[in-house]
Amino acid sequence: MNDASTTTRRDSHQQELRHDFRSAEPRWQAEWERRACFAVPDVPPADAKKYYVLEMFPYPSGKIHMGHVRNYTLGDVVARYKRARGHMVMHPMGWDAFGLPAENAARERGIHPGTWTYQNIANMRAELKRMGLSIEWAREFATCDAEYYGQQQKLFLDFHRAGLVERKESWVNWDPVDGTVLANEQVIDGRGWRSGALVEKKQLSQWFFSITKYADDLLRALEGLDRWPERVKLMQANWIGRSEGARVRFRLTAPVEAAAPQPPIDDIEVFTTRPDTLFGMSFLAVAAEHPLAAAAAARDPQAAAFVAECRRMGTSEATIEQAEKRGHDTGFRVAHPFIEGASFPVWIANFVLMEYGTGAIFGCPGHDERDYEFAAKYGLPITPVVLPPGADPQGFALEGAAYTGEGTIFNSGFLDGLEVTAAKRRAIEALEAKGQGTGLVNWRLRDWGVSRQRYWGCPIPFIHCAACGVVPVPDDQLPVRLPEDVDFSKPGNPLDTHPTWKHVACPSCGQPARRETDTCDTFVDSSWYFARFCSPRAAVPVTREAVDAWLPVDQYIGGIEHAILHLLYSRFFTRGMRDTGHLAIAEPFAGLFTQGMVTHESYKSADGRWLYPEEVEFGTAADGSRTATLKGGNAPVTIGRVEAMSKSKRNTVDPGAIIDRYGADTARWFILSDNPPERDMEWTEAGVAGAYRFSQRLYRLVAAALDGLPPAGTGAEGATGEAKKLRQATHRTIAAVTEALDSFAFNVAVARIHEFANAIGEAGEGTGAAKREALEAITRLVAPMMPHLAEELWSLLRPDETALVAELPWLEPDPALLRAETVTLAVQVLGKLRGTIEVAVDADEATIFALAEAEENVQRSIAGKPIRKRIHVPGRVVNFVV
RNA sequence: GCCCGCCUGGCGGAAUGGUAGACGCAGCGGACUUAAAAUCCGCAAUCCGCAAGGAUGUGGGGGUUCGAGUCCCCCGGCGGGCACCA
């Protein structure tokens, strides 16, 4: 099979009309670099229109993948387009360089995490540069640079001074064999991924950022983010999870001896959004981590066994909620706040989360699905207290499920007859009057635990002193650097097991003390990097003049998988930095675009092995369907599903190989042309080959026309006939591509450029100046997408021009050429298309109706029936109702 | 389990509530060539029909409307997130 890398020896004319991307792409990249086309000052001049384009920075895994290529291509189109529109564009790049994979590499291959990371960065930087991105590399940094994480430590201390940092107990996944804390993804079916040991929950004292202090503001401010996708705002709102309800105190019928040396427990607090259903209560349930569960476990081995079992479930909410609902009756009982003399059993339940509300619920199985399932399983009573509209209170019974809709309260004493909303209010009033509870707004959002018991992260800058407590590291001792000499052969956190690193003098009293050995969650690193880019070498976290000028990011682009956590943490961090005087704004990202994933077919050999695409050869079966066999043999291969590219499925395509074979412009063009950027795209060999053909066609279109073109600058005004038609196509395409780029419809922009290329190809002789105008226009319209080819074409069309396309302004369409003289209207009868008519754009309605009615096929459909209604949508449609 | 999306020809997709399928990929036919590749031209949702034309059609079912891919309700399939992967 022939391909783009085969040098074909044919007549010299053909040879001449072939775009040699291999020499052109590096040449233009060097020229952009030489002219510093993409450099901007930290503080732009006052009259500059600034525009900050940022793609989510990559984790330096070693090689760029197609997801990166897609992400950075999208961002680069925006950056180049906005620059052409007259903005001063900042477009930086860096590395999200701390994290688990570097430690895994260290354990598995004995390579130092730092060495591994910086090698990966060098590789990936070179690969990204080959894409021809309009990035200002002078701003580059990695989060594992001490210059970066040292400034992060300053922010940590500033946040601490501002009351945004606290220490709390929290639960982690603990691997008892490896002696390490496990990430959720390292827990597989309840076992540690390396040791295979059953994972336990363990309580540790950890560092937290007080994100909940901003819960209300983080929720309200979503409204103002008018250039964010609605679904992302919705996901964030649900995550923050504001709910109105009540805190209810249930008195234990007898005090319970607490497990730890603490005063006995005599009541349990519950949060509920349904105080209206209190009369439907049938049990109370606490989380396995609740003090009352501990008290039960202390005196009852069965309760202890159940609590231990819950501890083996891990900390992931998905695991907990998907597990079968199970419980254990503690034997304790609580009194009902309203029903004199009534009491209910207290259970420990595996679906109650300690982190939400108070870690305890009251169960009303009649009107809550989870409570219903639980009550049905353990034979607990189910009393309906909400009567659906129109139901009969005498004969009403729940049929196999809870009723969670609106209705009227019954079986509920003083609440009877009230609607749900009114009953909630009345119940809260009654609770408050009796001192048994209070109305309350509760949030699902929890404080952000940032402690990680790992080496490859930003050290948390505190020192533990027996005498002085937890003492901040003084500013002049920052950064707290990671030690270089670390031993990954021992279990546990290498910082903790390091012989000397943690032993320091207390900054306050000078006595021997211990350094904090926890490092930061890597989400902290990515929560302010966008601000650091504005003044990347500053000796402070950010310089005010730079961030005040450049922030917020005007267009942020990245994967939908970050819709909640990364974006929420960055919004929190920006508020924290504002309140500690580093910034003036609250919202970091004015515009957000979330791209889809890159997918590919997967392939499996007969023995069930995943195969790389380059190991497979394709053919066509007798029935026309595609077949696949192993290359260099004919062992059958199964073509599997199209799914997200992943190393484990081996359905990956190496961007480097694609650029070698087709060039960066082709890769970029295919990615943009395939589908809308917010959707998942499928990488196909045929698609990229098609994109390559188009790039060559464009080159031929220009190169073949050169000899016949009038000199540059020849006016095309006053053109008639063919030439005018071409000029209309030119200006309509400028308008259409501009609109498409403004709305992220890059695939539509590509389609319009294809149509335009067809129109130029069809344009007849004698269109001289109009043809030059068209070729120059198409060159400049493709420039954000295929920047190297555009420079090459521009140099052919304007050999004497000194400016690069990258330095030219965007084109403006001539409104006079956008107008049409006639318009085609669809003519419908009863909403069904029966014909079309061509009318002058300014034709009056009577003329249009007469013309439409006269149309032969329309006549046949009306068939003499009287017309009851005539509808005319100007420029679109005529509809007759008969 | 909970929250959020997506679903249109063989494939990717286009379409301010107004001619569904633009444009591209793959396919088929033709031109060029000794031949192939490359290139250029043409055809193409499905079914019926020689044609004119008709019927069906945007995951399935229902609704609103003169008119629904688009708005509303229910269902199905696929995907993202669920707080220590990044």
From TrEMBL:
Amino acid composition bias (Basic and acidic residues), ranges on this chain: 8-22
Domain Leucyl-tRNA synthetase editing: 238-431
Residues given in the record as ATP binding sites: 647
Main subcellular localisation: cytoplasm
Keyword check for Nucleotide-binding: yes
Pfam families: Anticodon_1, tRNA-synt_1, tRNA-synt_1_2, tRNA-synt_1g
A single GO cellular-component term on record: cytosol
Domain Methionyl/Leucyl tRNA synthetase: start-end pairs: 53-187
GO molecular function: aminoacyl-tRNA deacylase activity; ATP binding; leucine-tRNA ligase activity
Reaction(s) this enzyme catalyzes, per UniProt: tRNA(Leu) + L-leucine + ATP = L-leucyl-tRNA(Leu) + AMP + diphosphate
Protein family: Belongs to the class-I aminoacyl-tRNA synthetase family.
TM segment ranges: none
Intervals of motif 'KMSKS' region: 644-648
Domain named Aminoacyl-tRNA synthetase class Ia: residues: 445-601, 644-683
Protein name: Leucine--tRNA ligase
GO annotation terms (biological process): leucyl-tRNA aminoacylation
SUPFAM superfamilies associated with the record: Anticodon-binding domain of a subclass of class I aminoacyl-tRNA synthetases, Nucleotidylyl transferase, ValRS/IleRS/LeuRS editing domain
Listed EC numbers: 6.1.1.4
Record region (Disordered): 1-22
Localization (cell): Cytoplasm
InterPro entries: aa-tRNA-synth_I_CS (IPR001412), aa-tRNA-synth_Ia (IPR002300), Leu-tRNA-ligase (IPR002302), Leu_tRNA-synth_edit (IPR025709), M/V/L/I-tRNA-synth_anticd-bd (IPR013155), Methionyl/Leucyl_tRNA_Synth (IPR015413), Rossmann-like_a/b/a_fold (IPR014729), tRNAsynth_Ia_anticodon-bd (IPR009080)
Motif 'HIGH' region mapped to chain: 58-68
